Amino acid sequence: MNSELDSLCDVIVHLRKATKEAENNIEEPMDEDNLCTICYANEVAVVFHPCKHTSCRTCIKQQLMSCRECFYCKSNVESYSDIAPSSDMADTSAGGATSSK
């Protein structure tokens, strides 16, 4: 019985430590203006070509698995590129989005 009590005390101590660490590591909330308007979970990170609409990387990758249409204007997404912090865009291929099916 004592070993169970000791184990329980160890778990409680561990949980208290983990709770304090988690409270100290709280991230600043994301700017709502930079959230992806598709999922509202991630920041906007890519721009589609040629239409120039934007979303997070997760949403566009998911979209390109099933079709090549822009979420907003339904134009063909040929590729996408990262949105750089300085607004300069470095082109990257959209995982085969530039090739035709």
Low-confidence stretches: 86-101
Overall morphology: elongated
| Radius of gyration over C-alpha positions, nearest whole angstrom | 22 Å
- The second-level CATH architecture of the domain at 32-92 is 2-Layer Sandwich
Q: Biggest sheet: strands, sense, closure?
A: 4 strands, antiparallel
What percent strand?
Answer: 5-15%
Structural class: alpha+beta
> What is the overall number of helices?
2
- Helical content stands at 25-40%
Strand order of the largest sheet: 2-1-3-4
Report mean pLDDT, rounded to a whole number.
80
Describe the overall structure.
With 101 residues, the chain is an alpha+beta fold. Helices cover 33% and strands 15% of the residues. It has helices spanning 2-24, 57-66; strands at 46-49, 54-55, 79-83, 89-92. A 4-stranded antiparallel β-sheet has the order 2-1-3-4. Strand 3 (79-83) and strand 4 (89-92) form a beta hairpin. The longest helix is centred in the N-terminal third of the chain and has 23 residues, at 2-24.
Short description:
Helix content is 33%, strand content 15%. The chain has 101 residues and is an alpha+beta fold.
Write the layout of secondary structure elements.
Elements lengths: L1 H23 L21 E4 L4 E2 L1 H10 L12 E5 L5 E4 L9
Antiparallel strand pairs: 1-2, 1-3, 3-4
Enzyme class: transferase
Organism: Ciona savignyi
Protein name: RING-type E3 ubiquitin transferase
